[in-house]
Amino acid sequence: MVDNTPKSAAVNSTHKPQKQGPQTSRLRVSEATATVTGRPDFNADDILLGSGLNTVSIAASAATFGSYEYRVINFTLTLGLESGQYTFTSGQAGDIHALSYVEFATIGGNEVYYNCEGLSGTLDLQVEGSTYTLTAFSFSAKDSEGIDLTVSGNLAVSSTLCECD
Question: Is 95 left (phi over 0), alpha (psi -120 to 50) or beta?
Answer without folding.
Answer: alpha
